[in-house]
Amino acid sequence: xxxxxxxxxxxxxxxxxxxxxxxxxxxxxxxxxxxxxxxxxxxxxxxxxxxxxxxxxxxxxxxxxxxxxxxxxxxxxxxxxxxxxxxxxxxxxxxxxxxxxxxxxxxxxxxxxxxxxxxxxxxxxxxxxxxxxxxxxxxxxxxxxxxxxxxxxxxxxxxxxxxxxxxxxxxxx
Length: 173
Fold this sequence. Notes:
There is one protein chain. The chain is 17% helix and 34% strand. The protein is of the alpha/beta class. It has one domain (2-161): Dihydrofolate Reductase, subunit A, CATH 3.40.430.10. Strands 1, 4, 5, 6, 7, 8, 10, 11 and 12 form a nine-stranded mixed sheet that branches. A three-stranded antiparallel sheet has the order 3-2-9, with no helix packed on it.
């Protein structure tokens, strides 16, 4: 499974329910990676989408404990075990975890690739992605040249799990 996120230099991903920055090339990469694929996210991430609606041309799985939350165009999932059962129906390489903070943390053990847009700036933030640079199970396996968007420098970095076991849907390692 894949994780995909844009982070600042402190691995921050959001503040007060909003993304930290909007970089067109990052949005393009997100579209290229996730079109036609399965995306997994929580209710707060849904609220950041245009009109608060699921993303088209993708299989949308929303993880939320709220039994009253039902969203047209998405499949509601109430627990990690239920999510893992559903995800076992899809190839690992077609699954993308797209946020937010609690979903990333809960799903990190099941993932083996992380597509990170790392922005060289420290934003005010209240939501964070796990710091893969400090995790011995993860290594950088691809790194783009530095890009700029106005005065912001950023890079596209791919991390791969190199140690430890990746948990598989169904509980197998």
